[in-house]
Amino acid sequence: MTHTSFVNDRYANAPGSPIRELKRFTELPGMISLAGGYPAPELMDSGGLQKIFSSLSGTAFASALEYGGTEGAIALRTELARLSSSRGNAVEPGEVLTLSGSQQGIDLLARTLLSQGDTVLVEAPTYPAAISAFRFAGAAIHQVATDDEGLVLEDLERALIRLKPKVLYTVPTFGNPSGRTLSEGRRRELLKLAVRHQCLVIEDDPYGDLWFDQAPPPSIYSMRNTVDGAERVVAYLSSLSKTLAPGLRLGWMLGPAELRRACVLAKQTDDMHASTLTQAAAAAYLAQGLFSENLPRLRATYGKRAKALARALSLQLGKRIEFTAPGGGMFVWGRAPGVDTAEWLKAAIERSVLFVPGSAFYAQDADHSTFRLSFASQDEAGIATGVSRLEEALRAL
Amino acid sequence: MTHTSFVNDRYANAPGSPIRELKRFTELPGMISLAGGYPAPELMDSGGLQKIFSSLSGTAFASALEYGGTEGAIALRTELARLSSSRGNAVEPGEVLTLSGSQQGIDLLARTLLSQGDTVLVEAPTYPAAISAFRFAGAAIHQVATDDEGLVLEDLERALIRLKPKVLYTVPTFGNPSGRTLSEGRRRELLKLAVRHQCLVIEDDPYGDLWFDQAPPPSIYSMRNTVDGAERVVAYLSSLSKTLAPGLRLGWMLGPAELRRACVLAKQTDDMHASTLTQAAAAAYLAQGLFSENLPRLRATYGKRAKALARALSLQLGKRIEFTAPGGGMFVWGRAPGVDTAEWLKAAIERSVLFVPGSAFYAQDADHSTFRLSFASQDEAGIATGVSRLEEALRAL
């Protein structure tokens, strides 16, 4: 009897996440990882969160063990609405869809919006797990060029006209991997283009809270009432993974009611709802003001680390690479002209330092001389040593 | 400008979960719910679980706040492998895929196995959220008849020959909604049929641990080595939601490596991994033996409640309905000949009692005289009152 695979074509030959593949190297002794976008463990308020669990009343704890609504617990939705409103995204608790991490929002939207053969526009470069989610949903992915102000609108408009995409996916604020931020002017123009071409914008914003010296421009979502018809064409995703703790698996979606309803249907057949227990803990943590207390510490520390990385790169690799220092987030994106950064990574691993070659972040036509560095989970000394090792590795090529 | 919906056809007009729709009635004062398959809150070891959170060391708690592997934390996979092995499903920790509830396993398998137009066989009646997951994946659903021993194999074989289905979905042990258990003989025959027709069996087993007087037959999965080629054609799903706490959102999958690999890819783009924090708590709870300690109490209490329900139904409704008393699980499935149970439900809600009309559990050709009752979350007094109200409601029709 011959056996064929039960797995369908979309999943049978799909590659795994290149960033998750690197994770196994992070456990090697002495390894300095500038690879994953993982928040610094020492900056998470572990003590504060553990106290929350002990301080929940017996009744509150017990009810957090039960099944909950797919949209999320009202206590958490209330806090997320408050947090969103304080960032300019004015919403009611009933308009918040709680997610098991914002990544899930990309997946739910991909499943509920796309059909085989639909086109999705993404930035070049963009977040690889978004590319995967859209591919698994059967979409064709097309890249739009970016510059230091984010998406290049002329290129976007050409793509909108030529390809009639259903969705544009963007990380406009301290982007992953680019670290770039779409300017306020372009945000408004982008909204007009989205309305004109009836293309849904998925604004993925896990990093917006992590600004260093000045707050980023208002979210695209927050501008939806300034452009006629725009409230129908923007969905907004954010996360507690970078600012509170990824292990809670909590994120949220804001957007048109028809989209939230469809995503609720999809989530009902998936994990039904985010953990009611981690929701209860996060709600209490936010309600007690601990989130707002910890945030300045995150911003200050990541800001210092970003500057340390930029300084070390300029000093030690300034002649070999190009990069822009970010104003927030977790990433520095760069180019090493004439270098295949996959080869650079091999030499780097031998010298106990990790980063992500840039090719992982393209849907097509990868620029193999690009790379992404994260400064989030290394202190300044680790960053300095890491960059020295990168420099040695580059010299050894 | 005309606006069309952004939502694709599969999700645009899909109905929500009929059981979740009933949930809003459960909060009405005095309502007795025999509807949802929700574990009894008073039987969950809330105190024990809350202590686990306080007793995790600072280091353990902190590391449970970080990102984790998609397959799950090794501590939990070790405990789930041990639990599985003690139930006859001998596996290594590395073969356990941790899920955010077993429902997610249905969804991941649906997405990774099915393509538009594939056929899935289900039992008549079956679990509605499984029907939804398969429909959303583009599959055509076909029902197979059942009797008191579960799936009728002659009907199954005819469907396998005629429809060449890719997947058979079954809840063979204390089924939802039927309460029925597939006999051991039929399990083995079913495996042979699955191998002969190369149809993947998804064995969904959230209730197997909740037996009353005697343990159920071995799982289909545990028989995979007794039939040539069968190890390639069974995936097994189970859950901590019914036996520990649904709010943790934890379940697991066992099965062929190619399926687990595909599901890992799909999960990477979805919620990435189950909450590392609830995984850590569940692992500690299981490792300390508290799970095995609490289980006899669940079995005894649910057993008493099942018998109380069967007794009350016989006494008060014996002439109007047919039903079989289950040997485990959470459900009694019945028929009220000549009655439209949707009408019965309306009259029941007026009398403050809830149940689920049976039509929700069919993929096609619903028998509108059927109904599902859950005895799990009502004590014996509540069950007696609930059945009296059901009787009044039926009389009022």
UniProtKB/TrEMBL annotation, chains A, B:
UniProtKB keywords: Aminotransferase, DNA-binding, Pyridoxal phosphate, Transferase
GO MF annotations, alphabetized: DNA binding
Residue ranges constituting the Aminotransferase class I/classII large domain according to the UniProt record: 61-390
Domain of life: Bacteria
UniProt KW Membrane keyword: no
Entry cofactors: pyridoxal 5'-phosphate
InterPro entries hit by this protein: Aminotransferase_I/II_large, Class-I_PLP-dep_aminotransf, PyrdxlP-dep_Trfase, PyrdxlP-dep_Trfase_major, PyrdxlP-dep_Trfase_small
Name of the molecule in the record: DNA-binding transcriptional MocR family regulator
Organism: Variovorax soli
